[in-house]
Amino acid sequence: MKALKTATAALCVGLAALGASAPAFAWPDKSVNVIVPFPAGGATDTIARAVSNHLGTQFKQTFVVENKAGATGSIGAAQVARSPADGYTLLVSSLAPFVVAPHLMKNLPYDPLKDFTYLTVAVQAPNVLVVNPTLAPKLNNLQDVIAMLKAKPGAVSFATSGAGSSDHLTAELFWQKAGAKGLHVPYKGGAPAITDLLGGQVDMSFQNVNAVVQHIKAGKLKAIAVTGDKRSPVLPDVPTIAESGLQGVEVYSWQGIAAPRNLPADVKAKLQAGIVKALKDPALTKQFTDVGLEIVGNSPEEFTQFQAREFARWKQVIETGGITAN
């Protein structure tokens, strides 16, 4: 009888342990919410939907993309930070809520250094300095742009997709390194900024390569230089800013995927491997690289370290430039 009781107790302990670990091993056994903290139709949204479709096929569950825009991406990011760490809520975002919002907004409802499990940087792309059709004949290289800025301090207009956006921060960094400041003209998103740039209402802009490459190839915008440490494969004739004689403006826009902090290790490993598998799919790779996006797919540890470096870098740029959220 004693042996039977011992065996029964051991079995109960074993079943309890199995039950405790079952949710992690069973992941995913229901649909997964994928939060995009920006409006539908933008680059981050497109990337999130493409990767989510592939993950849905891999894991035989629905990955539902939901747009929660506003406040430099912090509204959607806060929702993910508050969610259970069970693998059923993900965040696909640019750098804005991870490394920009904390330096622009008071009382941010999350700590980007502590409240997320960083899975992988999905893609990255340099920005490109483009000028409108009217100015195109007058500006042949970066030194021409810098000369114009110095001749008209604070008057040359730079369109951005909003205060604290990647293109805004790139412009601010460029002004700091060039020693000459332009006029910041913020828009509510990249699309209206590009529309006014094409129409000549603003002079120039640092835009994501993938957002303007077709306009450049069509001759509607003139590309002056890219911000990467190498030339963009889709714009091989456009020099880097460093090649053009100005150092310290190596910038990539990027989209990363994260989950709430304390995500179970096995779920984290399964998710990250699934995302990397999606990024390596030939059709998905072509979809991204055709518009100038570069596949990254790094490890959680590499993403965490990268995020910390970006956090410190943009803090300095924001403080030096006196950038605010308005």
In words, what does this structure look like?
This protein is of the alpha/beta class. The chain folds into 2 domains: 167 residues, Bordetella uptake gene, domain 1 (D-Maltodextrin-Binding Protein, domain 2), CATH 3.40.190; 101 residues, D-Maltodextrin-Binding Protein, domain 2. It is 45% helix and 18% strand. α2 links the parallel β1 and β2. α2 crosses α9 and α4 runs parallel beside α11. It is globular.
Question: Which key features would you list for this structure?
Answer:
single chain, 326 residues, alpha/beta, D-Maltodextrin-Binding Protein, domain 2, 2 domains, eight-stranded mixed sheet, two-stranded parallel ribbon, 11 helices, 45% helix, globular, disordered N terminus, signal, Tripartite tricarboxylate transporter substrate binding protein, BUG
> So what's the CATH class of the largest domain?
Alpha Beta
Assembly type of the chains comes to: single chain
Order of helices and strands: HEHEHEHEHEHEHEHEEHHEH
The CATH H-level homologous superfamily of the largest domain: Bordetella uptake gene, domain 1
Shape: globular
Largest sheet: 8 strands, mixed
InterPro entries: BUG, Bug_dom1
Protein name: Tripartite tricarboxylate transporter substrate binding protein
Family: Belongs to the UPF0065 (bug) family.
Keywords: Signal
Topology, element by element:
Layout: H1 2-26, E1 32-36, H2 43-59, E2 63-67, H3 74-82, E3 89-93, H4 96-104, E4 116-131, H5 142-151, E5 157-160, H6 166-178, E6 183-186, H7 190-199, E7 204-208, H8 209-217, E8 222-226, E9 252-260, H9 265-279, H10 282-289, E10 294-295, H11 300-321
Parallel strand pairs: 1-2, 1-3, 5-6
Antiparallel strand pairs: 3-9, 4-7, 4-8, 4-9, 4-10
Helix pairs in contact: 2-9, 4-11, 6-11
Signal peptide: 1-26
Keywords: Signal
Protein name: Tripartite tricarboxylate transporter substrate binding protein
